[in-house]
Design goal:
Elements: H1 25-34, H2 50-80, H3 85-125, H4 132-158, H5 163-210, H6 214-263, H7 271-310, H8 312-315, H9 321-337, H10 350-371
Membrane topology: Multi-pass membrane protein
GO molecular function: signaling receptor activity
GO biological process, one term: detection of stimulus
Length: about 375
């Protein structure tokens, strides 16, 4: 997703919070596609209303179908692929995680919408100039692919010779896998907005330093520090568990596909199965890289803000030493508080990406050695 651009006239004004909050049209695009996976973000007052009753029926119905297709896939994998025990276990584990992601999104959908409204409000107050056309175009393409890919896989399996064991697996992909894909797009969307907020904050502080206005720098920093950290705290509470399960899902899929492609017996795989696994692998790896880079950008932009504040003593501003000490302490706190983690267990940064890639490569090498 492209970064939003802003001019010098569009810097943050702390008193701009009175601006009216317009509907988040970008979020509406994502929530519309969630209807395809049976998750309704449409607001309703009570479950006893007609709207709430229909939404509940949709949630329960699609969840039951997802569980059924998951059970059917486990049955077919266990009975028809008894030689691929490791692949069957990891594949089942990945599908269970995908189902958990669906239930987590169902549980937190109101908090997700609330977080998006808070981020939109902060965006407006910071006067970020959104590149709405490019952003919406990206969302339409990404969300459309998240729906078309599972559907195309299902159609492809229907027109091949081995439909007997692939139909239920493809339906399971259609019912369960679309929710993780859309959830990844939702997380990328939120993390990109947080990155833009941090970069705009950094640009404003840099402007104050360039104009030799230390008082304005201190005022803007202290007032916006609390809003940004509170916003990130709300996002972390809402999305950290989702991010944790997303990475578990993606890694399980990668391990499952790697196991399938390396340990498969000669003549035991059809061309459709190979193409299906290859397409899924490319899709998962692309999602992993894109999601990780966006999350890492949030952490890196916060560190850039800290480094800028730490350069204050070298500027030799006519600053009160106590104010300088306060700013330096707040800068350290900012870098540690404004970050994206996986349920608080690990920080998502470029080091995490390299470590994960190393684990996957090591796993593949071990499988090759065992297979030979």
């Amino acid at each position: 997703m492209p970064s939003r651009k802003f001019s010098k006239r569009e810097r943050v004004t702390v008193n701009a919070s009175e601006a009216d909050l317009s509907p988040d049209k970008e979020l509406e695009i994502i929530t519309k596609f969630f209807w395809f996976s049976g998750i309704a973000f449409y607001p309703f007052d009570t479950f006893l209303s007609l709207k709430g009753f229909l939404v509940t029926c949709l949630d329960v119905g699609v969840s039951v179908l997802s569980i059924y297709f998951l059970a059917a896939t486990v049955h077919f994998t266990a009975t028809l692929s008894s030689h691929a025990t490791g692949h069957a276990f990891i594949s089942t584990f990945a599908n269970i995680i995908g189902l958990c992601i669906r239930f987590i999104v169902l549980k937190k959908r109101r908090r997700i919408r609330k977080c998006s409204e808070i981020i939109s409000k902060l965006n407006q107050d910071m006067m970020l100039a959104p590149d709405t056309k490019r952003t919406r175009r990206f969302l339409w393409i990404a969300c459309g692919l998240s729906v078309l890919l599972p559907v195309s896989m299902m159609v492809f399996s229907l027109i091949t010779d081995d439909t007997a064991c692939d139909i239920l697996a493809s339906n399971q992909r259609l019912a369960v896998e679309m929710s993780p894909l859309l959830t990844m797009i939702l997380c990328v969307f939120v993390f990109t907005r947080l990155r833009d907020i941090n970069r705009n904050f950094l640009a404003q502080l840099q402007s104050s330093m360039d104009m030799n206005m230390p008082t304005k720098l201190f005022t803007d920093y202290t007032k916006l520090y609390g809003r940004i950290t509170k916003t990130v705290e709300k996002v972390e509470k809402t999305f950290s568990l989702i991010s944790f399960f997303l990475y578990g899902y993606m890694l399980s899929c990668v391990f499952s596909i790697t196991s399938y492609m390396i340990t498969r017996l000669p003549g035991s795989s059809y061309a459709s199965g190979i193409l299906f696994q290859a397409a899924t692998f490319i899709e998962i790896v692309a999602c992993f890289i894109f999601l990780s880079i966006r999350a890492a950008n949030v952490n890196e932009s916060a560190v850039e803000v800290k480094n800028l504040i730490h350069s204050l003593p070298a500027k030799r501003f006519d600053f009160n030493p106590n104010l300088t000490a306060t700013l330096l302490q707040l800068a350290n706190n900012f870098a540690s508080e404004v970050c994206v983690t996986g349920w608080g267990l690990f920080m998502i940064n470029r080091g995490f990406i390299l470590t994960t890639a190393g684990v996957v490569v090591t796993y593949g090498v071990i499988l090759v050695q065992l297979g030979s």
